[in-house]
Backbone:
């Protein structure tokens, strides 16, 4: 795609606040000058908001203030005026009931922070899972020139000389404790090895996936995703990003120029190649909804089918983000997609050039980490979209993290009505369950949990684990951490709390999973299913006040991205009325 830059110089939106000699202009400039800014900074140069998701309660983003200073250097160098703005930070590791419930709230807060204040362009300084999609959703809804720079992943973890991946080993060690092959003391000792530097999860979890999605969409500079948080090149990337946004403002290069249908298809294929998180499905659908792109679950299945998973990172593979960076990082993967005819090469990026220009000359430095196609982890690595009477609007499964022998499976349902029911029963030695059963978890979707928690990869019963079994078919309306693994059907839509068929599955029903034919089937007659659904009633009315009520009333299904219905679409960036 050829991008035609806007003429420069021209009047920018920040001049609606800072330009001229009126009482209002003096009011806006005068107060800003209490920070000691020289007058020439208000002369019509691009004003750049550095939207910083720093928080000490978002540990993956706790180092972002340092990077913000580097972004500032870059903005000044390029002739812009940087202003750092703290925005809502959503931590995956700490927020209750689940960070996902607040992705939309964060996106709404950031959108209004962008639109309501004198910003001509924005640097989205993000890291932990939800911070990346929430700020990208806001940028899409305002269409103010924006660029992403992420905080970067943590360094490798090691315990007893074994690589320890963020999250992935939490599930592995936890299962080992339940199986009796690891002591509780060893588990506690291993805790210190999991997070040994600043940064986000070092696996190809959701944070690394969303950093990769931002890069594949063209919304971050090439090479951004994999640089470790503590590597000096992360600071350099921040500075270069600061320089770049100033030119983007001058050129008027907007999110809607970059986040096209082609860009989303590139991102979906990249997700398959990296073995990325299932969470990317929800986030990309929501982002596309904000920018007005018609992206559906079927696009995920269609685009991902022919893409092998070639990035050998946990949870699908063996290595971690640090090794991915040394191997050449995401540009190598995007180049491979291009060579395989699986990339829209002319998709525009924030660089002002095409995505192919950015990657065509890169080299793979480690074929153990970025695998040759004939050694791919999975030949068809794209997220699978399942449909059937159990998931009329779809469910998703990540084949690279699943067990091949379970891809076609028929088993007896063992039902948990909600996560508390699961916790109460799973360790009961009398629970009627074995490895051939299908574990079914209800009421964990966008409305149900509320917020769609990452509990879909529910742990197996100890009596099954003790046999050395590590995977069973599991079905829910929940999400799964990007660091997790297993033959897990997620995001089942409509969700149980909205009266989807999942709500009426009973213990003892037979369920069929058929991944090659994309089928998820509850083996009861249509008449029986209709009779059960006719009797179904919601468990309660939902929260009566606060954001929880707003979320419950307006959240959409996972199949369309779980955004709030009234936030869909681009509302632009009109400067609005002045209050003075
Ligand atoms: Fe923050 Fe994984 S918990 S990136």
Residues:
């Amino acid at each position: 795609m050829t991008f035609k830059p806007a003429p420069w110089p021209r009047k920018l939106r920040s001049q609606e606040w800072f330009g001229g000699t009126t009482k209002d202009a003096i009011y806006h400039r005068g107060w800003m000058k209490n920070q000691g800014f020289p007058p020439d900074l208000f002369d019509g140069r691009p004003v750049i908001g550095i939207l910083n998701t720093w928080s000490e309660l978002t540990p993956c983003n706790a180092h972002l203030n340092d990077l913000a200073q580097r972004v500032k250097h870059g903005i000044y160098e390029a002739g812009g005026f940087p202003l750092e703005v703290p925005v809502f930070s959503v931590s995956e590791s700490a927020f209750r009931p689940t960070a996902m419930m607040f992705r939309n709230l964060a996106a709404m807060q950031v959108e209004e922070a962008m639109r309501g204040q004198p910003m001509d362009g924005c640097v989205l300084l993000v890291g932990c899972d939800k911070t990346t999609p929430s700020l990208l959703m806001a940028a899409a809804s305002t269409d103010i020139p924006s660029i992403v720079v992420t905080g970067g992943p943590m360094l490798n973890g090691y315990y007893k000389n074994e690589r320890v991946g963020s999250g992935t080993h939490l599930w592995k060690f936890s299962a080992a404790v339940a199986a009796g092959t690891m002591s509780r003391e060893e588990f506690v000792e291993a805790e210190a090895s999991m997070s040994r530097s600043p940064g986000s999860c070092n696996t190809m979890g959701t944070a690394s996936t969303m950093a990769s999605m931002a890069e594949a969409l063209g919304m971050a500079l090439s090479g951004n995703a994999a640089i470790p948080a503590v590597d000096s090149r992360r600071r350099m990337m921040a500075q270069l990003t600061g320089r770049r946004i100033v030119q983007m403002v001058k050129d008027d290069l907007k999110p809607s120029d970059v986040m096209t249908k082609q860009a989303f298809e590139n991102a979906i294929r990249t997700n398959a190649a990296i073995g990325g998180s299932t969470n990317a499905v929800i986030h990309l659908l929501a982002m596309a909804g904000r920018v007005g792109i018609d992206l559906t679950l079927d696009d995920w299945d269609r685009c991902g089918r022919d893409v092998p998973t070639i990035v050998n990172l946990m949870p699908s593979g063996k290595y971690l983000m640090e090794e991915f960076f040394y191997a050449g990082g995401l540009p190598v993967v995007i180049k491979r997609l291009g060579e395989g005819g699986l990339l829209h090469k002319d998709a525009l990026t924030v660089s002002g050039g095409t995505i192919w220009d950015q990657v065509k000359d890169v080299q793979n430095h480690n074929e153990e980490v970025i695998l040759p196609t004939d050694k791919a982890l999975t030949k068809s690595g794209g997220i699978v979209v399942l449909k059937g009477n159990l998931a009329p609007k779809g469910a998703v499964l990540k084949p690279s993290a699943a067990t091949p022998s379970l891809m076609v499976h028929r088993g007896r349902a063992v039902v948990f009505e909600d996560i508390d029911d699961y916790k109460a029963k799973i360790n009961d030695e009398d629970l009627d369950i074995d490895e051939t059963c299908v574990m079914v978890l209800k009421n964990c979707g966008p409305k149900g949990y509320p917020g769609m928690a990452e509990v879909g990869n529910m742990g197996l019963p100890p009596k099954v684990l003790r046999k050395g079994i590590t995977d069973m078919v599991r079905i829910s309306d929940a999400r799964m951490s990007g660091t997790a693994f297993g033959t897990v059907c997620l995001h089942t839509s409509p969700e149980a709390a909205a009266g989807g068929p999942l709500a009426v599955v009973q213990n003892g029903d037979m369920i069929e999973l058929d991944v090659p034919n994309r089928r998820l089937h509850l083996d009861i007659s249509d008449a029986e299913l209709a009779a059960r659904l006719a009797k179904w009633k919601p468990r309660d009315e939902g929260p009566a006040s606060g954001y929880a009520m707003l979320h419950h009333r307006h959240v959409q299904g996972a199949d369309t991205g779980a955004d709030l219905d009234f936030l869909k679409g681009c509302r632009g960036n009109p400067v609005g009325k002045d209050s003075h």
Summary: The chain has a mean pLDDT of 96. The longest strand covers residues 408-416. The chain has 20 helices and 14 strands.
